[in-house]
Amino acid sequence: MRSYALLSLGVVASIAHAATFDVDAGENGLSFEPDTITAAMGDTVNVHFYPGGHTATQSTFDNPCSPMSGGINSGVVNSNSGQASQMFSFQVNTTDPIWMYCGAPGHCAAGMAFVVNPPASGNTLAAYQSASSGKSGSAPSAVSGGVLVANVENSDNDDDTSSSSSSSGGSASATQSSATATGTAAAATTTSATGTGPAAQTPSNAASANFGTVPLLLLAPVAAYMLS
């Protein structure tokens, strides 16, 4: 029984430390912002779409602007003004780099791409974007590897506050969340955005504090049993 309690403790703890990262597609021209994210297994990436008819589509590094078989794909999401009514949410389920691009004609060739967990050396986003030049770009119509859900506006348009990145020293927006990319809904709590340029994202202290109360309430009965 106590082994089960310890297992429950571990599950709740892992949920408490999951993070959600916000990426804006097309807010400032043909770009994803931020274009580089450092995430852990189980973290979630939410892509918010601005006018222009964009996609968030996975490719390999060696074949930019072409959809990877069995990869992540949002399909085309458009907006008449501001963020679209739907966002695309996917879960990071690998430690390998995830190369993402916009499959709208000409967008990938213009450098509209981002990467989750880039390698420490070797293949770079700049090299990927350079190799994309001249490619038309395409994307499947079917959604895969994630889910389209009702958009939860990030705080990109609000006053910015800083949060430090433990991986690269950069900073950007992040939220704590227990949402997954394969469910039928994605619950997320957004926090303030920061930074002066594309950078790996990490959860802010405010998000950690707000989310932490839920696991503590859940852990109280478990801790009481273990001490009895």
TrEMBL record:
- Does this UniProt record's set of keywords contain Signal? yes
Query: What segments bear the compositional bias annotation Low complexity?
Result: 162-178
The record's region (Disordered) falls at 152-178
> Which InterPro entries does this chain map to?
Cupredoxin (IPR008972), Ser-rich/MCO-related (IPR052953)
Q: Which CDD domains match?
A: Cupredoxin
Q: Which residues form the signal peptide?
A: 1-18
Record key words, sorted: Signal
Q: What is this protein called?
A: Phytocyanin domain-containing protein
Source organism of the structure: Cladophialophora carrionii CBS 160.54
